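Milestone 3.1: sequence recovery, worked example.
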């Protein structure tokens, strides 16, 4: 393995019942040079409690949400929350935002999933305004603020690094124009280079540098240490793919369709209706290898190197082990 330093991002599941493991792995990631720890929210535990713990328990690693949605909190609340974590961490927060999907927004938060692009743009603009700690007025498509009160939180970074999870070409173009980072998803490995090149082009068209937007890998590299685990991990990934493609809103179906998998997703939909999630996952297994990597350390490193050549800046990596020290040792080899 070459002695190159790689920028690696890890997702740490946040659950108060397992806070000791959560913090132990965070401290190890911090020590070995992992670039970013991401906390997922969805409709489980809130992200900011976990992010605040990470901010207090680490010294170097960036702390990101991946993602929090722009519907269930006002932009002012988002600015407060991210700014507080930034202040606590000494300037290491990464603001990860997205629209989420109709199911989570409407069936969990009870909020209409309307005008998602406008909501994202407003959130980006207003978080930056609140972060400046200056009085402002704002008149947007859904939010109006007259002479905003100055926030009491004092973030460490001068301006927040805002990364967006976007799918639709219109929203991806918006990301290239206004965001600091892009968190793509469900892009096949062989189309990552093309997708990133388009974002770079849109950034330049907007008068920005081609490198203005940091790009995270759309899929993860999962190191499988026990060969007997491979089939279970492959099936788990396929189940996730089929859920997103069939049950998580039309935006995801259209994403797969854009990348040439319309027939497969239609077959998954029929299989789900006739035989349930397991039947849909059987079909998803056929295309799952196109979207990520699960294999040995060497296979994952090769995948990461290919993704780097395609333009990826930050690589999502996981290690299939319950042993914290083994987890850290493998990550250290990937980081370099």
């Amino acid at each position: 393995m070459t002695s190159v330093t790689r920028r690696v991002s890890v997702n740490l599941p946040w659950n108060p019942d397992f806070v000791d493991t959560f913090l132990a792995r965070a401290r190890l990631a911090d020590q070995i040079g992992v670039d970013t720890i991401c906390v997922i929210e969805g409709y489980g535990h809130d992200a900011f409690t976990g992010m605040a713990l990470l901010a207090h328990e680490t010294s170097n690693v960036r702390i990101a949400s991946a993602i929090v949605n722009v519907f269930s909190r006002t932009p002012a609340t988002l600015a407060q929350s991210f700014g507080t974590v930034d202040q606590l961490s000494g300037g290491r927060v990464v603001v990860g935002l997205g629209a989420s999907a109709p199911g989570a927004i409407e069936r969990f938060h009870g909020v209409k999933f309307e005008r998602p692009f406008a909501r994202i743009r407003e959130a980006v603009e207003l978080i930056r305004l609140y972060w400046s700690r200056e009085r402002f007025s704002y008149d947007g498509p859904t939010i109006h603020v007259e002479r905003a009160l100055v926030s009491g939180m004092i973030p460490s970074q001068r301006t927040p690094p805002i990364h967006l999870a976007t799918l639709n070409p219109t929203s991806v173009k918006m990301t290239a124009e206004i965001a600091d980072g892009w968190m793509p998803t469900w892009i096949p490995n062989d189309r990552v280079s093309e997708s990133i090149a388009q974002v770079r082009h849109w950034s330049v068209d907007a008068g920005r540098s081609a490198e203005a937007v940091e790009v995270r890998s759309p899929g993860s590299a999962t190191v499988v240490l026990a060969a007997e685990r491979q089939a279970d991990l492959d099936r788990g990934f396929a189940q996730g793919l089929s859920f997103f493609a069939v049950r998580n809103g039309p935006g995801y179906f259209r994403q797969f369709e854009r990348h040439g998998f319309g027939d497969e997703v239609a077959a998954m939909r029929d299989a789900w209706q006739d035989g349930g999630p397991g039947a849909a996952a059987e079909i998803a297994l056929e295309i799952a290898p196109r979207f990520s990597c699960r294999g040995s350390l060497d296979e994952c490193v090769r995948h990461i190197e290919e993704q780097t050549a395609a333009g990826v800046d930050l690589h999502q990596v996981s290690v299939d082990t319950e042993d914290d020290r083994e987890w850290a040792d493998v990550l250290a080899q990937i980081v370099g």
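The radius of gyration is 20 Å. The longest strand covers residues 214-224.
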